Amino acid sequence: MRRLVVIGNGMAGARTVEEILARGGRDQFDITMIGDEPYGNYNRIMLSHVLAGESSTDDEDLILNPMSWYRENGVTLYAGDRAIRLDRFAKTVTCESDREVAYDVLIVATGSNTFFPNMDGLREADGRLARGVFGFRTIADTNGMLQMAQAEDDVSAVVIGGGLLGLEAAYGLRTQGLTVNVVHSPGHLMNQQLDERGGSVLRAKIEALGVGVHTSVRTDAVLHDEQGRVTGVAFTDGSSLAADMVVVTAGIRPNTELARAGGLVIERGIVVDDQMRCEDEGSVYAVGECAQHRGELYGLVAPVWEQAVVLAEHLTGSNPEAAYEGSRSTTKLKVAGVDVAAMGVKGPELDGDEFLQFYDSRNGTYKNVVVRDGKLIGATLMGEVGKAGMLTQAFDGKIELPEDRLSLLFDLADGGAATSAADLPDDTQVCNCNGVSKGDIVSCVHAGASSLGEVIAKTRAGKGCGSCKGLVADIVACAAGGALVPDPSADWYVPCIPMTKAELISAIREQDLRAVSQVFTALATDGTEDAGSKMPLASLLRTIWGPDWVDERGALFINDRVHANIQRDGTFSVVPQMKGGVTTPDQLRRIADVADKYQVPLVKVTGGQRIDLLGIRKEDLPKVWGDLDMPSGYAYGKSMRTVKTCVGSDFCRYGLGDSTALGIALEERFQGLETPAKLKLAVAGCPRNCSEALCKDFGVVSVGEDRWEIYVGGAAGAHIRKGDLLATVESSDAVLDVAGRFIQYYREDAKWLERTYAWVPRVGLEHLQAILIRDEEGAVAGLDERMAIAVAGYRDPWQERTEPKSPAQFVPSLPLLPLPQVPVR
Q1: Between β-strands 698-704 and 707-712, what pairing exists: parallel, antiparallel or unpaired?
Q2: Is the pTM above the cut of 0.70?
Q3: How many other CB atoms sit within 10 Å of the CB of residue 71?
Q4: Alpha-carbon distance 731 to 706, whole Å?
Q5: Are 628 and 637 in contact (CB under 8 A)?
Q6: In the 8-state DSSP scheme, what is residue 87?
Q7: How are strands ordered across the β-sheet holding 219-224?
Q8: Cβ–Cβ contacts within 10 Å for residue 164, how many?
Q9: Using one digit for the tens of pLDDT, what is the confidence trace for 416-447?
Q10: H or E, element range at 345
């Protein structure tokens, strides 16, 4: 077996290995991959969703190949170890760890790096990016921005670069609640894809999101205060813009340093031939954004997928004639929530070019097509991209243009070019993000997949920006011979057990299953365990059995095992309980003493009126809790977390009700309660809403004379939603009763990780009022009883410090990522 080494575990390198394995490469090669990030392969396109709070860093849509994939496919992965030296004559690659890896065939897939313009204040003296300055390329970049955005109030950001990536960064940060400005040196946004008119329409859409846009200005320097914190950016015209954070998205550059030092031929990128072989080399290849083919560099994923297929066919011998001849420039994506499709030229270039243009700035719609000698040579769609599939076919020369050119932009009553899914050729690229064609989707359906969920899971179509999901559904329906077959697994509580949550609860009770392993054995398909199902099943068992469930530590997430919130550097944060946000001098002294004793890097007041101690080592957690001698604040769990309160009638001259007392009563009753997702409550002493009760999972507002309005399903994070008015009750005791029924019904009915702001609209406010307030189905007594049992079973988990659940529970663990010390502020 030949030794195949791939430098780079990004989208290009991993996709190439997938294509090699699909063609029998496991029997031909001993495959080793070297990646400088400490993860499996992930979808960089999804980072914008993570930044916007629409996804997380452990979301299956982000992680394309988890660590288990490498083991299952016989691939050796050296993660978190950068390749630093290539010896083409000895055929070895040396890593930062001093590991030396020998090869017979080498693939260089080092991708691109963020381009950082040469400007003052961008970097520290040692060359590192200055504190508060970020790129937007990796999980670490994204986590860094999120951490800063969530650590402080009223953070403002400047994004340098108004291309695709810059607008995605601006959209994500704005969604996180930051004040955001985009600075772009050309005259209009996304100038690589859009003409001036299209850029103007896009600008109006971006500004409508609350993002400031500054074009035709060039950034000259990043400004700092005496402590080294970012204070803004300065422009070449002498003006400036205030900011706490600077995100640089001014383009990318191929990562060719390793290849250049190793003696490969470099121009703008690593020069390759039609088989992706490096120039003058017999056993070294390059693929992806680092490769230069026929003078062209490609920064989009669709060409990279084409390169991966050609290289895999060449190396495995499955197609000796395989050759990459270049890719045509076509893009279909979603930018800051706006659909955009672009191909070819942006506007007419010769006197004889036909040019059709339509724009509607009020609705954010822009369209144009450019035709030369009867052939489509360019098209741009924004806001309404239904014609993108047909235009792509016309651009590739696969269909004739209609005589009425207007039908290229609109569906006309008298016909025109066909645009239905059935009329698209099989080689139509449907999902650019993951390189999935119509033929791939049709083949998947013909192979037995009959639902949209199955097709998406098997082909990854629609798992990138999401703009193609509608077309994917149409193709699946067409291939299946009619309407989509309902996906039964969509209602399963966990993927490996074919039951709804209600059916699963019933089966668990009937069979007296009290451990996650028992549930897998009795109910999972073929009795097979599924790692991703352990956490939701553990949560469900605790909901059903309370303290009488069987605690198997391997079924819990690290946060639940050690009762603290893991941070990105491997340390933990501890948040002691402060009921209703009320504390005492004694508690404050204990917190200060603990912070001093354990050298806590950061002490912070949270948005939920608690004090957070961040940067605590795992092995110190039991001692920290012992010294604090305060109950857990549950800031780490999928549970009832906090009840935020205002001053209320005790001190406030506007107070109508004792919000502090009611908030404390709610927290005492429901503390630590296991829920499908985190649950946040608030009580406001008057309609001025200082405690933000209107946008909490369960919010209570005093309207005077011991009358309280109860709002449910509110949100104020990545999703903004005012809670629905569930009921108005006549006493504080009634609030506690309704809260118990609402929380218990949510515990029993909601899907795993389904926040109330999604659950309440799904089940419907009228239904909740019928069940919980009017008791039309006689469910209230049962809900009250089950809630009382759960409340009675409460145990402070921090008491485990005296009796660890396992020998390894508080054993020191290595940091996940090396991080600089948190500065003293």
Answers
A1: antiparallel
A2: no
A3: 11
A4: 5
A5: no
A6: E
A7: 219-224, 230-235, 240-242
A8: 23
A9: 434 567 777 787 778 877 778 888 888 888 88
A10: none
